[in-house]
Design a protein that fits this description.
192 residues, alpha+beta, SH3 type barrels, three-stranded antiparallel sheet, 26% helix
Length: 192
């Protein structure tokens, strides 16, 4: 059974956030270290667009989180927490944020993208040219790098796809180089 089929069965063929049945798709909740049903949810095109493009956010659309934040699935609760954090300036999301329950691991996952932090507190990762890096971006190495703990050398020009950002240090990102997940210093990469 594919991830899409499992999510359709799990959700009853409805968006797990707003219950819409239009334009449903698999949404992998960043940062994604492994793909699968545990890091994904079924969402409509409207929800995905507003999650990925904060400028398109319609606060009234997200009143649906009053129901979906009680989901039994952590990925749904994580996205609900992130959207409520983004919208807390509207007033009504603050009450919902006070009620939502996430265990320590889920809360750490929810905070992994920096949603909920004030702009001044966010750690900004930049590549060698000063371009801002985001979770899920692809980068290319600008220099040969020895992979610590192995005899492997990552060659200049190697593409690293679907990076994850270190939330505590702006100089570190994580990504797979060959079969090995490794930490890479941002001054040695360029965004693709």
């Amino acid at each position: 059974m594919s991830i899409l089929e499992e999510l359709i069965e799990r959700s009853g063929n409805k968006c797990e956030l707003c219950t819409s049945t239009d334009n449903l798709q698999v949404y992998e909740v960043p940062p994604v270290s492994i793909s699968g049903i545990d890091s994904s949810l079924l969402a409509c095109g409207v929800c995905v667009d507003q999650i990925e493009n904060p400028d398109n956010t319609d606060p009234n659309h997200w009143r649906c989180l009053n129901d979906s934040m009680w989901s039994e699935f952590d990925t749904v609760k994580v996205v609900a927490w992130r959207m409520l954090s983004r919208l807390k300036g509207e007033g009504w999301p603050k009450d919902l944020l006070d009620m939502i329950y996430l265990d320590d691991e889920a809360l750490k996952f929810a905070k992994a993208t920096g949603e909920g932090l004030a702009e001044a507190d966010k750690i900004i990762h930049r590549d060698v040219n000063g371009v801002i890096l985001e979770n899920g971006d692809s980068v290319v190495l600008i220099k040969d790098l020895k992979i610590k703990g192995s005899s492997q050398v990552a060659k200049q020009g190697t593409a690293v796809r679907r990076i994850s950002l270190d939330r505590e240090n702006a100089e570190f990102i994580e990504g797979k180089v060959g079969p090995t997940m490794t930490v890479i210093i941002t001054k040695y990469v360029k965004k693709l």
